[in-house]
Specification:
By secondary structure, the protein is α+β, with helices and mostly antiparallel strands. The protein has 4 helices and 19 strands. A hairpin with an 8-residue loop joins strand 9 and strand 10.
Length: 340
């Protein structure tokens, strides 16, 4: 009897366990909240993706995101709290290596000729290799230049932070003679005695001088170097001598124009003054009304100053007629008396 009760109890327990497991399998596990924060209604707060920043944070309502401005602001990671951050500006000895985007900040590195010292975290000038040493690895923004001594027929005759050691010139054993051996700071010099000398002051060959002032070979001697100097032609200075001539011509033209303008103004003033004087003289010699009337009646121009004399002469030349009244009432003009 006890055995039957024990078996029944075990069966009941097994059924309960199986029923609970099937129920858990049917419901499934709950999805986790990545932000770890919930709204007032119990919803999981959403995160803004890279390139977007939080405009309104999650709280009573859901998170509100906004797009970051390219080249101005950025957002690198998903977040439900972070806003768009301003882009880094490269200033001073820093230059922009990669530009700023909406998902990545700008990357600034040391400017050309400088490298970042990891100890001081500051940009420092690149090391310059002295003569006799060449550049093994060029200077970069994150590492200094590395120099090495020039060996095995190589040389470096100048300071540089970019150029490596150059190979020395090799003279031909059959035709050339070694005048100077190669050193770490100078190249080898070879001479070919069988090559015909060039005639000095040849009309067809232009005259030139060397910019660096180095010595030139004697007639008939030819030197072979790895990097010959650049020629500087004397004829190039002719254009520089023309500049003062052009300036003098321009100054003469300007002075001539000014003199011509002054002369024209003076001549115009002189003519205006003479015209004013003529008008004043004409106003003083204006004829009287009697003279104008006589001029209009007879058509003869009469001078106003001689008009009284002319009128007196005409009065003397004329003899007034004497009128005699007769007894019968008639009128008889009396003959004028004889003139003296």
């Amino acid at each position: 009897m006890r055995t039957m009760d024990s078996v029944a109890l075990v069966l009941v327990l097994v059924m309960v366990v199986l029923a609970g497991g099937s129920k858990l399998d049917w419901a499934g596990p709950e999805e986790p909240c990545e932000s770890g924060q919930f709204t007032a209604s119990g919803d999981c707060c959403e995160e803004c993706p890279p390139g977007e920043g939080v405009v309104v944070p999650c709280g009573a309502k859901q998170t509100i995101c906004g797009q970051c401005m390219d080249s101005e602001t950025f957002s690198e990671a998903s977040s439900h709290t972070e806003t768009c951050q301003p882009c880094t500006q490269c200033t001073g000895l820093m230059r922009m290596h990669t530009p700023c985007t909406d998902t990545n900040d700008a990357l600034c590195v040391c400017d050309y000729g400088y490298f970042l010292n990891w100890v001081t975290q500051a940009c420092e000038p690149c090391t310059v290799c002295p003569p006799g040493q060449g550049v093994l690895s060029a200077c970069q923004y994150d590492q200094d230049s590395v120099c090495e001594p020039c060996l095995d027929q190589t040389f470096s005759d100048q300071e540089s932070s970019l150029d490596p050691c150059l190979p020395c010139n090799i003279c031909e054993e059959e035709t050339e003679i070694l005048l100077r051996s190669c050193t770490p700071t100078s190249d080898a010099i070879c001479h070919d005695p069988n090559r015909p000398p060039t005639e000095p002051h040849s009309p067809s060959a232009p005259t030139f001088t060397l910019l660096d002032g180095s010595w030139s070979p004697t007639p008939g001697e030819e030197l072979t170097t790895a990097y010959p100097s650049s020629p500087h032609f004397i004829g190039l200075g002719f254009n520089e001598n023309l500049i003062p001539i052009y300036c003098s011509i321009l100054a003469a033209v300007v002075v001539g124009l000014l003199a011509y303008i002054v002369f024209k103004r003076w001549n115009s003033c002189k003519q205006n003054k003479q015209a004013a004087n003529n008008r004043a003289t004409t106003a003083n010699q204006t004829p009287s009304p009697e003279g104008e009337k006589l001029h209009s009646d007879s058509g003869i121009s009469v001078d106003s100053q001689s008009l009284p004399e002319q009128l007196a002469a005409q009065a003397q030349s004329r003899v007034p007629e004497q009128i005699v009244v007769r007894v019968d009432g008639g009128v008889q003009p009396e003959s004028p008396p004889p003139q003296a």
